[in-house]
Amino acid sequence: MLQLIATLFFSFVLFIGCSSSNSSESKSASVLGDIKDKISWYADMTDDVLVMDLSVPVPNDYLCAPYTNPTGVLRACTLEDVLNDTDSNDAYEPLLHIKMQADDFIPSSEQMNASFEQKGKTTRNADQKSFRVKLDSTDVLYKKERTFQLNKHPYDNSRVRNKLAFDLFRNIPNFTSLKTQFVNLRINGVDYGLYTHIEKMGKEFLINRGWNEDDNLYKAQNFAFRMVNELNLNSSGKPINPDAFDSVIEIERGKDHTKLVAMLNAIDAAQTDAEFEAVFNRYFNRNNYITWMAINLVMANKDTVSQNFYLFNPLNSDTFYFMPWDYDGTGRATEKYAKWELGIATWWGIPLHQKFLKVKKNRDDVDAMVTTLRNQYVTPAAIQARLDVYEPLITPYLSVDPDANDLSTRQWRTEFDILIPRLDENIANYRGEIGVPMPFWQSFEYNGGVLKLMWDEAVDFEGDEIIYDVQCADNVDFNNSIVNETGLSVAAGDLNITSWGEVSYTKTVPMSTGVRYYMKITAREKNNPAHYQIAFDKEVEINDVTYFGLLEFALE
């Protein structure tokens, strides 16, 4: 009976989604079926370094509060205000009016033609900042671009990962790329060193590919493919709280967002594999989705769980296409990742990806695409060809100040040379995780002297029996543990499990307030202990050493 009710509810949700869009299906969408990038858009890209000069007049005609008192009285904004805008989440957003010019883009001598601000999130805490330059005019553009995103990539010692990724993406089917350019930035005659411009996804991005400028385009910020209150819409399909909406998934283009919400509700309502397949085929393009997932495995772009991707939804279409963003963190050393980040488990906490990956054919298709990408598009030869172009361009900048002051020649040379073998390591890591259980979340309770450790049952795709190692102590090395059990089994009655799949272990043990405790559950296949997994829980860092899979807690 419950299954019948669920099926009827799912059918109703899918019907509502259909009825909301069928009236417009007769109109032409910008993209139908597989997505194709506009290769001619990249024809004017040159392998050189663009010198961009910015002039900041003093006093500036844009006003802001001083960075030393962000809520203070407005006055002429200064370059120091922009350089000290270190919090991307607060309301302080100093902006300068400037003149931007390059050798082939020279405005009149007195004309201020652009705005200038700092960009990025965690990179704002770096010594060298990243910036955004936006031309005032919507008509007088530079090579058909209005916004220039000048990325310093302070945490990428090679300084080329982002550009390398997008240069390679231009040749990959069912995917899009972005135009990139090395830039030497000068502000008021002061050399700020080497930057990489990454094309902005917005109005011009759509127009320059021949698509509709009013197509829906979203940037994931903290987006888990779940319907949350921040995404509530009014009757016109607009966010009730635009700022809250953008904090989850930022609207870059589009006016009506009912299809996004309909897609999320349909994913949630799909309870069976067949129901999910219907939802997936309605709202996603299989080739694009598999390519996006596979390229992130090949490039080891782990930070794509709830951010660092765009969703593109053409008008008059239900389909959402994944588009790439931010690859400067790809290819880090293996020891910097949690075990579950090495393979497909990195996406297991997201309902869309979890329901997709539960099906063996889907996992096999992703694996086949990993092979195709590595053998045909992200090959050592293709990578080396681009590196050979980059090296003479960037060396003169990275070997002198200001970049040399932040980055030693040894640092960037080592990271530059490791890019090809690191990609082989990425794929070996991914393949080494095939067949292991999926990760899970941990929690605890302590009442009346009884400690209860809880976690989600670990899913094994092959259905192998899982046993658990259970640890809890007041130190990360689990010396003198208050709990230290190995090989516990639900089937043997060592552990309790609820109808919704929560596993628990209880023990009467004295514990103290004001003490930091650590819990760690390890799930293993009973007949193949080498196949094991740790928890999702955020890593713990102590004395510059990172410990993964631990839940840190204290008693109230």
Q: Determine the number of helices (DSSP H or I, runs of at least 4 residues).
A: 14
Question: Which strand order does the major sheet show?
Answer: 1-4-5-6-7-9-8
Stretches where pLDDT is under 50 for at least 5 consecutive residues are: 18-26
Helix content: 25-40%
The major β-sheet equals:
7 strands, mixed, barrel
Total strands: 24
Q: Describe the global form.
A: globular
Radius of gyration: 26 Å
**Which structural class do you get from the secondary structure elements?**
alpha+beta
Strand content: 15-25%
For the record, give the distance between the C-alpha atoms at the N and C termini, rounded to a whole number. 43 Å
- On the 0-100 scale, what is the average pLDDT? 93
Explain this structure to me?
It is built from 14 helices and 24 strands. 27% of the residues lie in helices and 24% in strands. Strands 1-4-5-6-7-9-8 form a seven-stranded mixed beta barrel. Strands 16, 17, 20, 21 and 24 form a five-stranded antiparallel beta sheet that branches. It has a four-stranded antiparallel beta sheet with strand order 11-10-12-13. The chain is an alpha+beta fold and 556 residues long. 35% of the residues are buried. Among the domains are: 42-159 and 179-198, no CATH class; 442-553, Immunoglobulin-like, CATH 2.60.40.10. It has helices at 2-19, 79-83, 161-169, 203-207, 242-248, 258-269, 273-283, 286-299, 351-357, 360-377, 380-398, 403-406, 409-417, 419-432; strands at residues 49-55, 63-64, 75-76, 96-101, 114-119, 130-135, 147-151, 180-187, 190-198, 216-220, 249-253, 309-313, 321-324, 442-447, 450-456, 466-473, 483-489, 496-497, 502-508, 517-525, 528-533, 540-542, 545-547, 551-553. Strand 8 (180-187) and strand 9 (190-198) form a beta hairpin. The model is unreliable at 18-26 (pLDDT under 50).
